[in-house]
Amino acid sequence: MRRKISYPLVALGMVASSLTVASPAQAHGYVSNPPSRQALCAAGTVRDCGPIQFEPQSVEAPKGSQRCDGGVAQWSVLSDESRNWPARNVGSSVTFTWVLTARHRTADWEYFIDGTRIATFDGGNAQPDATVSHTIDLGKFPGRQRLLAVWNIGDTPMAFYNCVDLNVGGGGGGVVPTRPPASSEPPANPPAAPPAAPPAADPPAAPPAADPPAADPPAAPPAAPVTGDPWAAGVSYKTGDVVTYEGTRYQCRQGHTSLNSWEPSIYTLALWLPL
Description:
Layout: E1 29-33, H1 37-43, E2 60-62, E3 87-90, E4 93-100, E5 106-113, E6 116-126, E7 131-137, E8 143-153, E9 158-168, E10 175-176, E11 229-230, E12 236-237, E13 242-245, E14 248-252, E15 256-257, E16 272-274
Parallel strand pairs: 3-9, 11-13
Antiparallel strand pairs: 1-4, 2-9, 3-10, 4-7, 5-6, 5-8, 8-9, 12-15, 13-14, 14-16
């Protein structure tokens, strides 16, 4: 019996009528790692993002934009610098991974910092894989940076836009806030300390105290997903993890934090491989 494979071209769940829901023609791709701004919205790391939280792969606009939202008002939250976007600490060499929910023929992939193109990768007008990774040397751009990643489609005048906030040279993992924390330096003229009190006389010896009650054992850390466990939303899956969903076993192809309406049967071949 032939296995039926579900391709990732369906809408991403039901939302309120005031929101725009992705249709099959609107499902495309986004940078998942380090997380782009739309990936942070989809994961709930940054809240109140509007419709982009349901369709992070849909920031499509004509080629040539230098904006995080591609110049499309619907996605304008992605260009709002007041949102205090968290930055990922990275080393000087960074690998960017795209998750493609519709694999369009590709002209090229471009990466920009402050409007300057720092890397490009030829797509050969070919259909890419479901996940695509590029490694870029950012050693000339230390500190906090907002990197614009652009996927230029080969057979249309359109492109897909992603901004990724980074702290280059900050090591691997972790995030730093957009705004620096308040200064912890002591005041210029700290008040003088009060004079010390004279030592008190030794108190009488107290009777020996009873043994204190045993402390509660520390709470166990959350368990990692067990091979073959049922798929669940809100779990950080890594490449190679195996889950079950609706009677089918799937292997994770790309590390991600699962979301409702991103079940393995929907994102088959993009995030999950049926076994």
